[in-house]
Amino acid sequence: MASKQSIIIIGAGIGGLFCGAILSKEGFSVKIFEKHNQIGGGLHQFQREGVVFETGIHVIGAFQPGGVLNRLCSYLGILDKLSILPEDDDCFELFQIGSDQKEYRFAKGSERFIETLGKEFPEEKENITRYVQALYAICDTVKHYNLEYSETSMREYPDTLMQSVGDFIDSFTENERLRSVLGLANPLYAGEQYKTPVYIHAFISKFYIEGAGRFVGGSQQLADALTQVIRQSGGEVYAGNDVTHIEIEDKNIDHIVTADGEKRRADWYISSIHPSSLFKLLDTSKLQRSYWTRIDAIPNSYSSFTLYIILKPNTFPFFNYTGYYQDDYNMTWTHDEYTPDNWPKGMMYITPPVTSHDTFAEKLIVNCIMNFETVKQWENTTTGKRGKDYETFKQRCEQQIIKQLEKVFPDIRSSIQSVYSASPLTIRDYYNRKEGALYGAKKDCNNLALSYISVRTKLKNLLLTGQNVNLHGILGVPLTAVTTCGELIGLEDLLNKINKANL
Ligand SMILES: Cc1cc2nc3c(=O)[nH]c(=O)nc-3n(C[C@H](O)[C@H](O)[C@H](O)COP(=O)(O)OP(=O)(O)OC[C@H]3O[C@@H](n4cnc5c(N)ncnc54)[C@H](O)[C@@H]3O)c2cc1C
Fold first, then answer.
1. CATH class of 6-48+220-299+442-500
2. Which residue has the higher pLDDT, 309 or 4?
3. Which residue is closest in CA terms to ligand 1's atom 46?
4. What does the pLDDT look like over 349-401, one tens digit per residue?
5. Which residues contact 371 (CB under 8 A, 6 or more apart)?
6. How far is the CA of 450 from the centre of ligand 1 (A)?
7. Stretch among 19-23, 225-229, 447-451, 457-461 having the lowest mean pLDDT
8. pLDDT computed for residue 2 by the predictor
């Protein structure tokens, strides 16, 4: 019997784990090396005072019957291991604007979405309908994102998909307030009004309109379920053993070196880490430098400052939606343009579910956009040793967020038991992501050639996966994992298998 082809994967985040699980299921011998002592990357959780917090996956989607993640997890046999609470049908996202005290509810399903938003903008209902139809049409065009096979690559799709999200929204309405409201969820994809390609806005919007939800008890359950698939097939995920060097021979990876000093070889290698972090592991004298320097130079999306609040028991009601607040409509696209005094310009907040029937919230997580520049003065420090002035900076940020929160929850202070926080430096150091980029490499429709990253590389036995290729998050990263694995299995075959498993 022919021996299994062997794969080494760098990084056990969503990208590495989905690749590992798919390839294990399809008969490859998989080894994953993970820097952190906990598996999961963005799925990673931590505990404070016994309370579990998610770090990088708070809101999910596409796990509803027929959704792409439902189908992918069902093919992997892990769907029944996941506990998911769908967000409220009538309001999965609540947007509050301070200046006129208005609230906008995004409701689930395209019809209900149009109906609900149409009530706020009765004279614009037809335009809202056309906008939603166009969003869905964009999503239908990209076959792969529906787990359907197509020969067309992302670069060959029509220009309509590659126009900016701002131009796209502007083409449906002259109403400035509606334009602003349709863009309000842009922190979910680090949107830049006239730079982010509309396909990103379309996928993320439809993803949540169709099936927004949260993991009950935290996101680590998905990492554990994927790891189990790998181990059941004889593969292994090695936590706390990072890849420290990659040796190249004749345009191939010859071997990698891990932190324990071992040299390790495989037929194929997959990198699931930030391209700049990968670049640092390579022996640059043996590289086609122009390719790697282009990849290394791709600008990154902005980062965030996160506040983790432990709430006093039974004092703060649980809510089953994702909340957003900003002071005025004109701030929609400028959360990353701030001064020390007017930060944060917006915030996203959630009460993660502990059970599927919570009445009170145990915790509140608040994410606010922050640029790496803001913490650059501490860039040469490491976790726990950043100094007193950094701690003072963090405390000031925490207080500024709580002040913003009081605009939505005037009595919030009386419910706070304790607070913890994470800055762009935390994101950089925990995931090894350049500049603590929230969603990795930035996509710019004005320079797609610069921001395009293929799963294939100039090294013959190295493939890429993860959020820097195509699309980030719990939707984008698993779908890119399918593309990456398709290079080894045959994409058409793999998609057939996934779809057959769902018949
Ligand atoms: C604060 C925050 C909130 C977010 N909220 C959401 C959300 O609600 N919904 C959503 O869909 N997305 C969200 N995202 C985005 C999402 O977390 C990412 O898109 C996703 O986790 C990226 O997965 P990945 O596998 O590409 O990379 P990562 O999760 O970064 O995984 C890479 C892994 O590689 C490891 N690694 C790095 N270097 C090495 C090395 N040399 N050797 C071995 N291992 C290495 C890292 O430790 C990490 O585990 C959020 C992100 C952040 C930061």
1. alpha beta
2. 309
3. 431
4. 999 999 999 999 999 999 999 999 999 999 999 999 999 999 999 999 999 99
5. 302, 303, 336, 424
6. 22
7. 447-451
8. 60
Of 374, 472, 365, 473, the residue nearest 423 (C-alpha): 374
Take residue 250 and report the two structure tokens written for it. Answer: 């004749």
Q: For a pocket test of ligand 1, which of 9, 68, 273 has the largest count of ligand atoms closer than 8 A to its C-beta?
A: 273
pLDDT tens, residue by residue, 398-418: 999 999 999 999 999 999 999
Q: Pocket residues for ligand 1 (CB within 6 Å)?
A: 10-16, 33-36, 41-42, 56-59, 242-243, 272-273, 277, 304, 306, 367, 427, 431-433, 438-439, 466-467, 472-474, 477
Residue 472 burial by Cβ neighbours in a 10 Å radius (0-12, 13-18, 19+): buried
Q: Tell me the C-alpha distance between 364 and 294, whole Å.
A: 40
Q: Which amino acid is at 361?
A: A
Q: How many CB atoms lie within 10 A of CB 204?
A: 21
Domain boundaries, the chain: 6-48+220-299+442-500, 302-438
CA of 41 to the centre of ligand 1 (A): 4
Q: Which pLDDT band, with edges at 50, 70 and 90, does 319 fall under?
A: very high
Residue (of 45, 54, 59, 57) closest to 320 by Cα position: 59
* Strand locations in 385-495 (E): 416-422, 462-464
User: Please, how many CA atoms are within 13 Å of residue 293, restricted to the half-sphere of its CB?
Assistant: 6
Q: Please classify residue 26 by burial: count the beta carbons closer than 10 Å to its beta carbon, then call 0-12 exposed, 13-18 middle and 19+ buried.
A: middle
Q: Reply yes or no on whether the pLDDT at 37 is more than 80.
A: yes
Q: Are 417 and 311 in contact (CB under 8 A)?
A: yes
